[in-house]
Design brief:
Number of helices: 11
Protein name: Oxidoreductase
CATH topology: FAD/NAD(P)-binding domain
Helix content: 25-40%
Bound molecules: flavin-adenine dinucleotide
Keywords: Monooxygenase, Oxidoreductase
Largest sheet: 7 strands, mixed
GO molecular function, one term: monooxygenase activity
Strand content: 25-35%
Radius of gyration: 21 Å
Distance between the termini: 18 Å
CATH superfamily: FAD/NAD(P)-binding domain
InterPro entries: FAD-bd, FAD-dep_Monooxygenase_BioMet, FAD/NAD-bd_sf
Pfam families: FAD_binding_3
Length: 364
């Protein structure tokens, strides 16, 4: 959509034949993500599917508040969305704007000529274009095509789970996400005025499991494991797990993030989103950074021929995304080792990354 606004014709080639129904858990779209969507007039549809969040309340295993993060007043609230809804909304928006998505097109490789690039897909088909943008997520094929030395994502030592609840049977959380740093694991939940809401859990798990491996264990068994992890905490975790319909348990898989990516672009190929800078869901920034990068890349392509555009894009984005990933990595190390946790409230006070504005009309 950003490319379209920049006057660049774009076509999407997606590996799956469906949208992301039931895939992934809750995602927060931070003020910086909403700002990026605003730059391409796509923020309102996302606000419409989201629940506004005005901050976090952090408690310890004894239910003592150790920190409260309030969003600065000048910023709009974060919006909590289910990944399924976000995917569908952006998909519908792109379709309304006349952008074509070809499905069942698993990208395998590409070859460049002096005049164009040709992408090859698993079904044997090909597509030609001036440039190829690898927006193919954390397990990106394009990432290693650009540079085989681009390191793979690394596991943060945590598995993610989440579930919506029609009735949390918990008092409303006043538009704030409540997070308990328990004895063994962290647990977050949200309860709205009508007491609907949901929860997420980050379960320390030394062994790296893929999402497929996580799914080999039944939801009932995972709910039992989660229950055991929270049983010594004074928090609503166990009660909410007991209320959870196993069929509604969202297994979001291993929390992973990418180490700094040495090569962002090569020739006619460039990376964007999680393929380039995946922060784990604990940062609350994965989708927002992906949105920012997509808009910034489009602005650069609007203003420059592609080689200069890619260089301008990297210069604009690299310092910011690497700093945010570094911060998340540190936070995850603490979550994966609860015994090493510190409760210094200053650890939760940084909101610098939320203050990010993209002025679409200014030159890059
Ligand atoms: C299964 C899953 C669950 C997630 N759950 C959460 C969550 O609970 N909370 C959270 O904050 N974030 C979650 N995320 C991350 C969040 O969705 C991303 O940070 C954010 O959406 C970044 O978007 P992206 O477009 O860069 O990557 P993605 O959202 O990963 O999108 C990449 C797209 O590329 C497609 N693709 C991959 N490989 C190929 C290929 N070879 N050829 C063609 N298409 C390909 C994928 O099918 C996908 O549609 C999840 C991501 C995934 C993949």
């Amino acid at each position: 959509m950003a490319l379209r606004k920049a006057g660049v014709e774009a076509t999407i080639y997606e590996a799956y034949d469906t949208t992301a129904d039931g895939i992934g858990g809750g995602i927060s779209i931070a003020p910086n993500g909403l700002d990026a969507l605003g730059a391409i007039d796509a923020d309102e549809p996302v606000r419409a599917i989201g629940t506004p969040l005005y901050g976090n309340v952090i408690t310890n295993a004894q239910n003592v508040k150790v920190a409260e993060l309030a969003l600065p007043e000048e910023l709009p609230p974060l919006h909590f969305v289910w990944r399924t809804d976000l995917y569908r909304t952006l998909h519908d928006q792109s379709r309304e704007r006349g952008i074509t998505t070809h499905r069942n097109k698993k990208f395998l490789t590409a070859e460049e000529s002096p005049t164009h690039i040709t992408a090859h897909f698993a079904d044997g088909s090909t597509a030609q274009a001036d440039i190829l943008i690898g927006a193919d997520g954390i397990r990106s094929t394009v990432r290693t095509l650009i540079n085989a030395e681009n390191p793979p994502p690394h596991y943060a030592g945590l598995l993610g789970f989440a579930a919506p609840l029609a009735d949390t049977r918990t008092p409303p959380t006043g538009g704030k996400l409540h997070i308990t740093h328990g004895k063994r694991a962290s647990f977050g939940y949200l309860s709205q005025e009508d007491r609907s809401g949901g929860w997420f859990a980050n379960l320390p798990h030394p062994e790296h499991l893929t999402l497929q491996e996580v799914r080999k264990t039944t939801p009932q068994e995972w709910l039992r494991t989660l229950r055991a992890a929270y049983t010594d905490d004074d928090s609503p975790a166990v009660a909410m797990l007991d209320l959870t319909d196993p069929d509604q348990l969202l297994m979001t898989g291993p929390l992973e993030l990418t180490p700094p990516t040495p090569t962002w672009h090569r020739g006619r190929i460039v990376l964007v989103g999680d393929s380039l800078h995946a922060t784990s869901p604990t940062s609350g920034q994965g989708a927002s950074l992906a949105l920012e990068s997509a808009v910034q890349l489009a602005r650069c392509l609007r203003d420059h021929p592609y080689p200069e555009a890619f260089a301008a894009y990297e210069a604009l984005r690299r310092p910011r995304v690497e700093e945010i990933i570094e911060q998340t990595d540190q936070a995850n190390q603490t979550k994966a080792r609860p015994e090493a946790r510190k409760t210094d409230p200053r650890h939760h006070s940084a909101t610098w990354h939320l203050h990010h504005h993209i002025d679409w009309n200014s030159p890059t």
